[in-house]
Amino acid sequence: MTDRELGVYFGDFGETLSEQEYPMTARRLREKFADQELEISGESVSFASLLAPIEETFESSEQLLATILMMVGMDAVGRKRYTDRGGSAAIDQEVGPQTSL
Description:
This protein is an alpha+beta fold.
């Protein structure tokens, strides 16, 4: 895990999660890292509260990361529909959806 994934800032905690022995249950992760915080869209969220509704066993840190990103969903996205790659949402709307053949 890097220190930032798709709008979720893990800091050094991301590396700590990567170094753990898996499989590990969500319950064990909550107990072991109850005091850890993640930053999502500039707000601090406790790791334990994020995993509170989860009762599964994670086979790897990658599976854990995917679950975390799914749990935060669009809350981790900065400015919606923003791109720094040129074009604009207004132009996209005028043209309409593109389909490939």
